């Protein structure tokens, strides 16, 4: 018998009709009972909270992080599944992944159809997630959706309502779930985890996202600094570009101790220092860090997680650069070990 802890957090997978729209209300056991459990898998449910994931806060994500670590403190547990709303699933999965050094997987899943939908995807996605939780090792935190297994890092929600909601615009799935079996396709490099924040960590790390566009000025960027942001993700155009006014604002912010990271609003591809005139060349010279292929939501999580994990400003700079590195070096347990697939 293999043992999985399911941590329930709400989302569409736990939603029912409320008269004028859907909202999360079902407990984790109700979600579990809506479908089948793989043979020889025993499940323990933890009801952590029940919210639509668009309402999540850093406090919710810290509670989730510690719930995952509490579950894995039991050596009898083979893996953890987190049921989560799809709106911010990519953020929570990456947040957990940045602190996850255990060989056992943490599998995030959800649904695009509510729990009571006759043709819904909740039961199938949960079954696949449970199977993945007992079928892999050293895969970190992953997202299982519509029969595909994706690494948390780099995976985003790419469609608002389609059943195949998630994908990695700059990578391929780690594997697929078909006919009651997980078939693995490739190895996943692991990074050394960030130090785990204390349970009572004061949530004082405000990190904002500001988008560049034609006609943009520095008003919103400066407003974020004035509001007390300790980090800002600038969403550039193209390969991470803005204009001279915003580059000057970045320089001022970095000088005052604010961490600035540059992502892109383009769906696929990496940020790259190609252009001056306020482009990524100038933004990097002003002290901003380029986020590689991380899209804005996960770039923000990288900054936030680093600020929560490391209090010293200089150490935080070093850790953030490591987290953003697109070519990680060896990390503990970096070799992928697949129980039911290729590579041991």
Automatic annotation (TrEMBL):
Keywords in alphabetical order: Hydrolase
Keyword Cytoplasm carried by entry: no
Keyword Hydrolase: yes
Active site: 12, 12 (o-isoaspartyl threonine intermediate), 86
Highest taxon of the lineage: Bacteria
Stated family: Belongs to the asparaginase 1 family.
PANTHER family, per database record: 60 KDA LYSOPHOSPHOLIPASE, L-ASPARAGINASE
Name listed for the protein in its UniProt record: asparaginase
Protein's organism: Actinacidiphila bryophytorum
């Amino acid at each position: 018998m293999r043992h999985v802890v399911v941590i329930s957090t709400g989302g569409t997978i736990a939603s029912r009709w409320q008269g004028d729209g859907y909202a999360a209300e079902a407990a984790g056991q109700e979600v579990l009972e809506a479908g089948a459990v793989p043979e020889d898998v025993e499940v323990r449910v933890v009801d952590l909270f029940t919210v639509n994931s668009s309402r999540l806060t850093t406090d919710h994500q810290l509670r989730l992080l510690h719930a995952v670590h509490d579950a894995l403190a039991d050596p009898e547990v083979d893996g953890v599944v987190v049921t989560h709303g799809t709106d911010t699933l990519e953020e929570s999965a990456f947040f957990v992944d940045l602190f996850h050094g255990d060989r056992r997987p943490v599998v995030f899943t959800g649904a695009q159809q509510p729990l009571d939908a006759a043709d819904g995807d909740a039961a199938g996605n949960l079954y696949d997630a449970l199977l993945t939780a007992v079928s892999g090792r050293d895969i970190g935190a992953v997202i299982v959706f519509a029969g595909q297994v994706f690494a948390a890092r780099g995976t985003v929600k790419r469609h608002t309502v389609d059943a195949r909601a998630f994908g990695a615009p700059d990578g391929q799935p780690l594997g697929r779930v078909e006919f009651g079996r997980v078939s693995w396709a490739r190895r996943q490099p692991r990074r050394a985890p960030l130090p785990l924040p204390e349970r009572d960590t004061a949530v004082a790390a405000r990190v904002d996202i500001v988008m560049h566009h034609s006609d943009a000025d520095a008003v919103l960027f400066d407003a974020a600094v004035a509001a007390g942001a300790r980090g800002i993700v600038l969403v550039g155009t193209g390969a991470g570009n803005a204009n001279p006014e915003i580059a000057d604002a970045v320089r001022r912010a970095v000088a005052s101790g604010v961490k600035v990271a540059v992502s892109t609003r383009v769906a696929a591809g990496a940020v790259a220092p190609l252009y001056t005139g306020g482009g990524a060349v100038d933004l990097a010279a002003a002290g901003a860090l380029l986020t590689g292929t991380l899209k804005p939501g996960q770039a923000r999580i990288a900054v936030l997680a680093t600020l929560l994990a490391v209090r010293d400003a200089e150490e935080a700079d070093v850790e953030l650069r490591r987290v953003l590195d697109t070519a990680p070096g060896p990390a503990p347990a970096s070799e992928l070990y697949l129980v039911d697939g290729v590579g041991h």
